[in-house]
Amino acid sequence: MTALARQTLRTRWAGFLGSFLALALGVGLFATAGLILAAALRGHDIPPRWYVAPSVVVAGPDRAGVTALDPADGFDPALPPDERGFVPAGAVDALAGLEDVSAVIVEHVSYARFGAATEARPWAARALRPGGLAAGGPPTRPEHVVITAPTETRVGEEVTVVTVEGPRRFTVSGIIETPAEPALYVANDLAARLAGGRVAAIALVPAPGVDPTTLGEDVRAALDAFPMLRVLTGDDRRGAELDPEAGLYVGVTSLAGSVAGLSGFVAVYIVAGTFRFTVTQRRRELALLRAAGATPRQVRRLVRSEALLVGAAAGLVGIALSALGAPAAAGWLAGHGLAPTGFTTELVWWPLAAAYALGLAVAVAGAWSPARRAGRIRPVEAIGEATVERRGGARAVVGWVLGSACLGGTIPMARLMSGPAGAAYLLVVVMLLIVGATLLLPTLMRPVNRLVTTGRSPIAMLARASARSETRRYAASIAPVLVTVGLAGGTLAGTATISATEAAGLRDHLTAPMVVVPAGAARLPSGTADRLAGLPGVTAAVPVKATSVFDDRGDMVREHTAWFVHGAAARHVVRLPTISGSVDGLSAGAVAVSASLAEAHGWRTGGTATLWLGDGAAVTPRIAAVVEDRLGLPAVFLPWELARTHSTTPMPDAVYLALTPQAELAAIRAAVPLGALVTVESHLTTLDERFDRLNRLSLIALLGVALLYTAIAIANTQLIAVGDLTRELRVLCQVGATRRQALALARREGLTVAVTGVSLGCAVMIGTLATVHIALGRVSETVRTLVPWPPFLAVVACCIAITLAAGVLPARRALRRRESHAAGGRRASAS
Amino acid sequence: MSAEPAVRIVDLRKIHGTGTVAVTALDGITLDFPAGTFTAIMGPSGSGKSTLAQCAAGLDRPTSGEVAVDGVLLNAMDETELTVFRRKRIGFVFQAFNLLPSLTAEENVTLPLRLAGARPTPGRARVALATVGLGDRAGSRPSELSGGQQQRVAIARALVTAPAIVFADEPTGALDSGSGRDVLRLLRSLVDEHRHTVIMVTHDPVAAAQADRVVVLSDGRVAEERTAEKRTAEKAR
Ligand SMILES: Nc1ncnc2c1ncn2[C@@H]1O[C@H](COP(=O)(O)OP(=O)(O)OP(=O)(O)O)[C@@H](O)[C@H]1O
Ligand SMILES: [Mg+2]
User: Fold this and answer.
1) What's the predicted TM-score (pTM) here?
2) How many domains does chain B have?
3) Sorted alphabetically, which Pfam families does this protein's record hold (chain B) (predicted)?
4) Residue of the nearest CA to atom 25 in ligand 1?
5) Which residues are near ligand 1 (CB < 6 Å)?
6) How far apart are CA B138 and CA B160, in angstroms?
7) How large is the ipTM?
8) Tens digit of pLDDT for each residue in A96-108?
9) 3-state SS record for A617-675
10) Domain span including residue A125
11) Residue B58: domain span
């Protein structure tokens, strides 16, 4: 059978081109996403930038959910990218008596911004980095700072550095040249004070001749009492460094994951449809095989071997495509700020192997049910001209049941969507709706078809008849239009509605008229709110900083959004829908939690919560209040006091102000030289715009390629279908239809396909919006429905144009060829 | 002692479609086709000739009634058993659309052997093609052959497994009188020289004259059955 399959493929390659193309593009897309994913994951594998000289580094936890009894494992979620775990002071003492150590360097790291540097580090830590003083000397006094070359600044110059405490004057005492990252080196005591005494890491330099790995084992043993600490040697020490680009890597990883998932779905969808269609088209040929003595099994094997051969070849082409596509995609991501600058991919074998295997699996799975159908073809079907397939009652029922199950599957999804990771489920909802609509297509398309083909002209009559009898051809052509429009509409409208509702939720709850936000790149000093609160006319000045907390429900540790907020004053700037308790009680040792979180754990006001903060520290605060779940508001409110001890940069994102009419804006502005005083409304608008831009870019990255793929699939299936259509048109011309009439029929068929596909795609979009409405209705007061019409309509227009062009142009050419044949006479055909 | 007919059909009924569109193609036909005879089936268009041939050859399933080939009941077999049985015993030539377009004439001819798992020698196909006068067109694809040539390739294919029973549905319909005669002579020789059984559907009285017996169908029933005396007489001589 394989030999026969190879032969059929060789001679009928045109017929298999469609399946081949669909598979190659699917594999290419999946492999590209895989290569990006590999590059994003590998991003962390580069050597340490700070701990260059040999050393053993003791660092705090890098995962949440770690306790003394339960050491970190791979399932615990990573800390937020801009937060680090700290080393308790006791660890320094525990390491004091260790032998074979030439130096113990305690790294106090704090926010400090000058030039390219963003961190202040103790001068002692310079020993861990190669390079030396190019000019001047070490910082011997608190007002001294050593900066890194290249710089315009000279030794002895006075500079202003933005520190946690605010702008501070320093004198440059020296300049060092080092391949390590730029940093500001200050006197050891000052570094400790700026860091609030918190230790970011301890580096132990081994005595000459001592192997760091051996020393590492001694250190581990000495830190027996601190199981949550990490002892790192070699390149692992990079794990002790906060990577400014870690957030982008996380973003790229999740984006590439979504793209891989979506492209996998689209590939399976399109390829399965194409295989099904090709089998339908070859019905008579397969029946002939049966008549010539092929058993049903042999016919099934034939179809499957063909699929395997197509899959094997298309996979190679797909991999070659990804080798070209991945660097281009990486460049695009980096260019648009979705990935770190200089983000590149390398040809790694495993994503390619995975994509190739997926291609084969998709081919085999896609051909599975068509093959079964092929096996059921009866030999007598070879004889009749009619290749119309009667749809068996049982099959129709199965389609109905599965289709309804898919549509019904969105109901539990609505529940999940109102949870914290809601947006992630949006794609699943859209996919379920698309699959459901496709399974119900034979039923759903009938009324639309009838509507599009009304009329008394002979063309309308013919179009009506062919839409009725050629259900499979129509369904096959409609499916890619449906998936394109449904995917675009569902995802665009769903995301837009979710983010608009989220933005509206935040707006609804913020009552403050004005807010102070960073004016430039430098952050607001930690004391900004206190300074503002003292000004005349300022009723309340509430610092807010977004962070993450983690909870453990026994099965797994989950991340939740949280705000550090000044509790007592919060009610002046934000309206919180408290169910019990009061946020006024939000002070050191107390938190407010959302109702869903409280419900999941059985927490009550007055009880205790168990949480991990952004630095991985486990805390058991009292519950001061339970607040209703609201989109735009975080799941947990943390007192500002905790930020000082648990946040890497305890500096507010914004300070919200409640003002009396006596407030003097000029005085407020003067009090915060690094801040900008703006209305809350304009601040939120800026936030929305920034968010929308990122959102739009990720959507383009996510949808763009998938849509390109489905658009090609539309043309592809139209081109396969047009073979049948042309045969029909030729017969029509033989019985006296003019060329114009035949083309009108082709156009009408194309239009019917496009309109039906677009209508059902719109139905998918409406279904998605309905699900989003149900989901958001639980967590917001009003749901803002938003359909981004321009991009959606552009997609719809493209679909219609492609369907018509791919359906009509080949028919036109075929008819013209027929005419020239007739005119050219026998001679042309004889040669 | 030809007690066992090659094909026996008993009270065969075939209804196409269901409900209001149901068409009764065969309405209770009982016939024996003795081994080593040549039977022609005639009758007006739509009278059920093709349906009868297909049901008797095991290509289609009757609605009710029995079909036995060489004493083996076909009704009880599943698709695979039926196919394997058919492959060994029965050759079939359709009215039209006989060949796989992607295969050459030779490959089309050897297809049943290959499907049966045999590795056909090129010689076997050439011999079969030469028998139908197409020895030189082995490498041609169906699209490069005329309608009559395609029909002859189909006959070669039906004969290549040396089946004991050959069904032919208007095998000469698309042929000129010369090649039609060749095909008929070929079928005749199967009966005379190899004692195969041939059942041929035809509209052509000249073709029917080659048969030992003529069965005339009308509206799905046997309207008339006659033995061609001339043939029998010729044979007796
Ligand atoms: N697949 C089918 N579905 C419905 N009716 C059918 C089908 N096949 C045949 N028929 C009907 O069954 C009857 C017998 O058809 P059949 O093909 O056996 O006729 P025939 O005698 O071979 O005619 P012809 O000489 O024109 O080939 C006809 O009325 C035909 O319309
Ligand atoms: Mg017939």
Assistant:
1) 0.79
2) 1
3) ABC_tran (PF00005)
4) B45
5) A 384; B 16-17, 23, 25, 43, 45-51
6) 14
7) 0.79
8) 888 888 889 999 9
9) CEECCEEEEEECCCCCCCCEEEEHHHHHHHCCCCCCCEEEEEECCCCCHHHHHHHCCCE
10) 109-197
11) 5-227
